[in-house]
Amino acid sequence: MPAPDAIPHEEPSYLTAERGIGSWLLTTDHKRIALLYMAALTAFFFIGGAGAVAIRLELFTPKADVLTADGYNRMFTLHGTVMIWFFLVPSIPTTLGNFLIPLMVGARDLAFPRLNLLSWYLFIFAGAVLIYALVAGGVDTGWTFYTPFSTTFSNGYVLLAGLAIILAGFSSIATGVNFLATIHLLRAPGMGWFRLPLFAWAIYGTSLVMVLATPVLTAVLLLVIAERGFGLPVFDPSRGGDPLLFQHLFWFYSHPAVYIMILPSFGVISEIVTCFSRRNVFGYDFMVYAILWIAIAGFLVWGHHMFVSGQSIYASLAFSFLSFVIAVPSAIKVFNWTFTLYRGQITFEAPMLYAVGFIGLFTIGGLTGLFLASIPIDVHVSDTYYVVGHFHFIMVGGAVSAFYGGLSFWWPKITGRKYPMTWARFAAILMFFGFGFTFFPMFIMGYLGMPRRYQVYPEEFQVWHVMSSAGAVLLAGAYLLPMGYLAWSVFWGEKAEDDPWNATGLEWSTSSPPPRDNFRTPPEVDEGPYFYHPEGEGPGHDHGDPHRDQVRTP
Known about the structure:
mainly alpha, disordered N terminus, transmembrane helix, respiratory chain, metal-binding, iron, transmembrane
């Protein structure tokens, strides 16, 4: 068991070791950079959320009351591009990943601290370029930038938006390279691969996808810029181009990008579930293999986005089969979380409520995805609100619930302060029900034929849209409430112990908040990533689990 006072409390924390705005803007401390990312992501979350508010206001009635047709196209493009590339993709890796990975592996920092800071500046510059393009001229292609919309019909600001996504991609690649190098090279003595926490494995798998898939997105957006800006015949069929080439390249990146958004969530939920059920992770090895399976197989299923594009029926059958296959590792994770909870001494602190909500929402999202993997059903619901509901159950219900759960779990470590648990529990419950009221009606609308991206719709769909808009109000409250009480806790919250949850892991063996260099003395690891008493009464040794033990620090 790590000594609770491995770091003397009088040693300055990373928050106070240096002062002044310059010390933050030029910092190479991974923990401070994580907070810089958190501030930027919060700003982008509000901008993307404003687009969602405008969409739901417009859809409250069947007529065009708030936005023009062109304005509506620009608004859902703003919402999609900002939320996907500037919130969902970077949310957990750049914040919790940046803060925790060196702590979890026993390192003083990431492998390339200056590259880490550069990636943040690239991210900020890319976001500024995108917001300028969206506000100054407006982009109306949707977040997918499909041709010929982006190459022929949209205004020229689509090229500026594409450039912003390319820059954000370079930031993503730099972050992925940093995580891979850190996990490979900077693990504490004795920390073998199967002594890594599952969150570290999830970030490792995510980083592989970032590094391997993002260059494809960069290439296809550069081809759009080349055709639109320089007249090169790439996608225009009248000049020998192929418009479907864009879809193949785009979805070859964007389906693995789904796992960039959700794989880190698996790691967060695994850490929370094992802690608050007071049981070791069930099937640790299978959880690791499932993460790697998802990371690799995610590159093989992009064609299920193109069942109605005219591709070969044999290709569609192959992609349909592979789409069912990739559901297996996700199901393994749900089963393993369930068996970890089974007979556990469960306590329902806020992080656990977020985790349970995640499991429920992700399971619904995964099951509805199986219908989209079936060619006949996918043809029926393609480009309807069914797809919107499925995507949001996975990406928003899953990834955002995990992000808030992870933030609640590690907040005492990040800030050294506790937050009001009653309010946190209320926010977690409100998020689950608010999300259900917002997005479940979309499955019904989609099955009945309501197309997505339409602002004017038949009156029979109004009741479902009203229900969805009312649920969005609850969901907005669930998102805003934690921002309030977490900010309050920084100034007035009770001081947190080094390990307030009685959890396992190297990150809990240092002070709250940690010092600049993470550990006073370099830790050594001679045991596995998790250990709890079989009876569920805090850390100990479960002799029935080969990965039962934990770290030791000098």
